Amino acid sequence: MFLPPESDRSVSAKQARPRPDPHRVRERMIRELREQGITDENVLRAMGLIHRHLFVDEALAARAYDLTSLPLGLGQTISNPLTVARMTELLQLQAGMRVLEIGTGSGYQAAVLAEMGCFVYTVERLPLLHEKAKKILRELGYARIRMMLGDGTMGYRVAAPYARIIVTAGGPSVPEPLLKQLDEKGIMLIPVGEAHSQRLLRITRRGSSFVREDFGPASFVDLVGNHGW
Ligand code: SAH
Questions:
Q1: Which of 79, 173, 197, 209 is catalytic?
Q2: Selected residue with higher pLDDT from 9 and 157
Q3: I need a surface site. Which of 5, 78, 202, 215 has the fewest CB within 10 A?
Q4: Is 79 part of the annotated catalytic residue set?
Q5: What's the distance, Cα to Cα, between the start and end of the chain in Å?
Q6: pLDDT at 155 over 80
Q7: Strands across the sheet with 145-149, in order?
Q8: Cα dist. 223→8, 83, 213, 214 in Å?
Q9: Using one digit for the tens of pLDDT, what is the confidence trace for 20-48?
Q10: How far is the CA of 169 from the centre of ligand 1 (A)?
Q11: Minimal CA–CA distance to 199: which of 212, 210, 215?
């Protein structure tokens, strides 16, 4: 076997150090999600397809597939993949559904919803994050995602009603406009409680009444707006 001289060997070893293979790290993330109890194969498939490192700053790319939330700037965060997976599972999505997301953030959750075959309407209040998410989602070719800038606690009446609503920021109560924009038999997921410490609620509409289920503690950034903080 040919070996380069000692001095060259360290250089070539350095050059040969493998960069994390995006396919392998995504597989590892999916394995870890399974270990944490995620069983919905459609959710796992969707998350296995998306290049999550493209949704965070380059400096954080190496940690993009860890089960942790990461900063997006402006005090906001991209949710932990486990939280994204749990919430997506709890939404009981079917392809073709119209889904409203409040809190576009990085755009990652919207991409997951689109990969599940849904038509996604997502609202973000911070212009910088809205623009960034728009850029990456356009680049990746997500034609089924509509992105709006504004106060998501008001919902988005233009395209209502929605089969599903997912709120990815925590407020003091369930915004009334969102309840109104939920379809018959529609399902909404929303963290409600104190700042940074909420309960994840699933609200199912049955005609004019709403059934609430509590899925335990959650920690999201603040839902800021007319019907938020
Ligand atoms: N779903 C995102 C993570 C969201 S972080 C992702 O996949 O990356 C929560 C986001 O909600 C932040 O970007 C914050 O700016 C936004 N937000 C807070 N209050 C809002 C409101 N009233 N309307 C729309 N977006 C809001």
A1: 79
A2: 157
A3: 5
A4: yes
A5: 67
A6: yes
A7: 145-149, 119-124, 98-102, 162-167, 182-194, 197-206, 209-218
A8: 56, 17, 20, 19
A9: 677 899 999 999 999 999 999 999 999 99
A10: 6
A11: 215
